[in-house]
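Thread: "does anyone have the structure for this chain?"

Original post by V.I.:
We have the sequence but no experimental structure in hand. Need at least a predicted one for the grant figures.
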Amino acid sequence: MTYTRVVCVCLITLLASSATLSAQDGDRAPAEHVGLWLSGGLGGGTTSEDDDGPAGYFRIGGSVSQHVQLGGEVAGLTYDVDGTNVSFANTTFTALFDPALPGGFFAKAGIGFASVMTSLDVGGGTFTTDDEGFGVTLGVGYDIRIGGNLYLTPNFDLLLQTYGDDRDASLALFTLGLGMY
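Reply from O.Q.:
Generated one for you, tokens below.
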């Protein structure tokens, strides 16, 4: 079983158990999205060429309302192929929309920059190339309140990238994060 499949199975199991966790949280007043928030997570991902490896994200921003948060996000994936390390990332201005009370399903969209870096160790040195382009991040997630304003968040993100040399990339990331709102 590949790394990405293991992460997917873990996230599906976590989502299935979220109904039980949410039911146990029913006695508490809902948390509020107020002021600064931050979230980060790790997991796995895959490219459109079926290369997979570890993935992660970090986002920080502010709450506009109980349903809208704006901020910045960096999300990416890295993998090795035949001794070459390839790393993709999107750095975007991101909007999160939470249609219900804070905690629960959310959707997000971000627009900004894409980058790809390739490095290869050759004869005692490292040869590195990088390219920058346009990036879009689309995603969904589910905030599971674990205490106060602390949330466990399974995420699915789609990173779309385009570069000036007609080389495009698309990545699917499956991560589990921890966030504070």
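V.I.: this helps a lot. The longest strand covers residues 105-122.
O.Q.: and The chain has one helix and nine strands.
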